[in-house]
Amino acid sequence: MQVMFIVSSPAFLVSGYTFPQLAMPGTIQCLGYIVPLTPFLAAWRKVVLYGGGFGDIVPELCIMILGIVIYASLMLAVLKKRFRTFEGRA
User: pTM of this prediction?
Assistant: First the structure.
């Protein structure tokens, strides 16, 4: 629980969930887009608060898809490295 709290607290701070992202410095705003919650919240605001449609959230969807591809690639690389480590022990 403590590790999850330590990891998720900065994610909430830089994603714009607790504070407006426009009030943050530019570097923190850029780092906020690493957190998947940031583009999701931007898309959610456009749809729910402003009545936007699918065409309005395409940029956020592209960012989320790119994040999925990057995170999945990193996960596969780490898993392949771990499996190679285990194969040497067998």
Answer: 0.72
For 28, the domain range is: 1-35
Angstrom CA distances, 3 to 6, 7, 9, 10, 11, stand at: 5, 6, 10, 12, 13
52 & 40 share domain? yes
Distances from the Cα of 9 to the Cα of 28, 44, 90, angstroms: 14, 20, 40
Asked if residue 53 and residue 85 are part of one domain, the reply reads yes
Contacts (Cβ under 8 Å, ≥6 apart) of 83: none
Q: Is 19 helix (H, G, I), strand (E, B) or coil?
A: coil
Write the pLDDT tens digit of every residue in 64-74: 999 899 999 99
